Amino acid sequence: MLGMMITGHGEFSVGMKQALEMIAGEQVFCEAVPFFEDMELEAFNLKIFETIKQLKEQTDGVLVFSDLKGGTPFNVSMLAISEIADTAMLTGVNLPTLIEGSMLRLTETDPVALAKILMNTGREGLEQVDFPVKREETEQEIGGI
What is the pLDDT of residues 3-26, one digit of tens each? Predict the structure, then answer.
């Protein structure tokens, strides 16, 4: 089993975890680590490292999900996983990715392999939906002149 850590700006990680649990049920070994504007970088860095280490001690590995490539949560998490074995990271995460990941992580032991699978899930979860525009009937169509 793999652990999951979700991080991002503001309440993103907390909201994503709440949405995940609303759909897929309570998640064990899944932590949300928010980054707030007024946080000290060192405190956030420590929280990320500690969370990943704790999850790693209880699972086969850890998959980290972040909101935005290049943002502080991403950068700090990348530093952490570069120092902790059996970890991987996905950025630009969406809810379909978290839902699929929450199910597959129960039997998967390789976070890199799971990350590769979830890349497709993330892409498939993002879709432009077109609805036909309802046009107004002309007078001729409704029997007019």
Answer: 999 999 999 999 999 999 999 999
Per-residue tokens: 106: 């129960």
Q: What sign does the dihedral 23-28-29-34 (CA atoms) show?
A: positive
- Read off the tokens for 13: 């990680």
**Tens-digit pLDDT profile for residues 86-108:** 999 999 999 999 999 999 999 99
Mean pLDDT across 116-139:
85
Q: What is the pTM of this model?
A: 0.89
Distance between CA 5 and CA 62 in Å, rounded? 7
Measure the CA–CA gap between 116 and 114, rounded to whole angstroms. 5
Sequence-ordered list of residues with C-beta below 8 angstroms from that of 9, at least 6 positions apart, any chain: 34, 35, 67, 68, 71, 72, 73
Going along the chain from its start, the domains and CATH numbers come out as 3-125 (3.40.50.510)
Question: 123: closest CA among 78, 80, 93, 84?
Answer: 93
b/e map 26-38, b = 16+ CB within 10 Å: ebebbbbbbbeee
Identify the pLDDT of residue 133: 81
